[in-house]
Amino acid sequence: MHSLHDRHRAVMPDWLALYYDRPLEITHGEGRHVWDAEGKRYLDFFGGILTTMTAHALPEVTKAVSEQAGRIIHSSTLYLNRPMVELAERIAGLSGIPDGRVFFTTSGTEANDTALLLATAYRGSNQVLAMRNSYHGRSFSAVGITGNRSWSPTSLSPLQTLYVHGGVRGRGPYAQLSDAQFTEACVADLEDMLGQTRGGVAALIAEPVQGVGGFTCPPDGLYGAFREVLDRHGILWISDEVQTGWGRTGEHFWGWQAHAQSGPPDMLTFAKGIGNGMSIGGVVARAEIMNCLDANSISTFGGSPVTMAAGLANLTYLLEHDLQGNARRVGGLLIERLRAIGAQLPVVREVRGRGLMIGIELVKPGTDQASPEAATTVLEAAREGGLLIGKGGAHNTSVLRIAPPLSLNVTEAEEGAAILEQALRAV
Question: What is this structure's pTM?
Answer without folding.
Answer: 0.97
